[in-house]
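Translate sequence into structure tokens.
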Amino acid sequence: MKKTNLVITITAAYLLCQIIADVTAVKMVSLFGLAVPAAVFIYALTFTIREAHKQLGKKATVHLIITAGIVNVLMALYFMFTVALKPAGFWGNQEAYAMIIGVVPRVVTASILAEVASELIDTEIYQRWIERFPNAPQWSRVLVSNGISLPIDSVIFVGIAFFGTMPINALISVMVGQIIVKAVITIISIPMIYLVPTKKVYVEDELAD
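Result follows.
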């Protein structure tokens, strides 16, 4: 029962962070002189939460990533549907609603492509690392896998979500800012991975597959 509850908690937390990130990414914020999407703070946590890989196993983690993508697509489609609906006569916020929610489908598309590419790479690197260095500390797995996947995610996401909405130099600045902020949040959130016990036969099971 404890294991089932843990898996449910991990899955719910991952999907929640993904959905919140896709909605809040439409706003740009300034942080210590860096321009970044507001979603960067919570989205960075998904990389650490996804380190539940060590409990779920590689196949289940890949399934979780794909499921999150499907959930986000359904959310974007519903947002598009609500924007298209005729507003009530007394409701005067249609333009503002469409301006914010209407951007979400593009953000979701960028997020899904970036997520699938970067997190599958992250999962593969993580798996190879523990197979090659099974006794290495857990924090090293996070730093190695995230150190490669985070930049990939930021470049793909920012490029697709905001290309054409700002000058190129600003676009590059946002990419760099997002990578820096995500890296800092990843390092700060590393202790979270120790809250999830490692599946004892995890490496053996994956090698057997």
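Note: Confidence is low (pLDDT under 50) at residues 200-209.
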